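Long-time lurker. I teach an intro course on protein structure, and each term I like to show students one example going from raw sequence to a predicted 3D structure in token notation. This year I'd like something fresh instead of my usual example. Would anyone be willing to generate the tokens for the chain below so I can use it in lecture? Attribution to the forum is fine with me.
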Amino acid sequence: TAIGNDTLGQSISLNSVPALESLFGLRNVAGALQGSLIIEHADQLASLEGLEGITAIGNDTLGQSISLNSVPALESVTGLRGVEGALPGSLRINYADQLVSLDGLEGITAIGKELEGKSIHLRSVPALQSIVGLRSLAGAL
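-- Reply from a regular --
Happy to contribute to a lecture. Here you go:
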């Protein structure tokens, strides 16, 4: 089952949801996202649990596949453990103060580029101790 996208190429976009604590309500979303997964300004979100049924992620008009921005309470991305194969766009994680590792991204084998030319963009992730979750990446970025 494929999940469509909007005119910006986004399949799931959660923006300016400062009180959101859980994605469990999305637990029945399954299959491939044609567009990107964007979560921004979700101050209370600690995990991506609820997204385990997503098996692939496309990209948006900016060339992003996964963008997690201003998610200061995010501790884990293991909710994305069902995603396998190549991301056609970039992986962006910004301002994720509590994120310790990228465990859960082991199924991703390649990452494309966004319009700015970046494949992986990690910024202001001060607790990050390990990127071993990206160990399945192969080839050029």
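Some talking points for your students: The longest strand covers residues 10-15. Strands lie at 2-3, 10-15, 31-33, 36-40, 54-57, 64-69, 85-87, 90-94, 108-111, 120-123.
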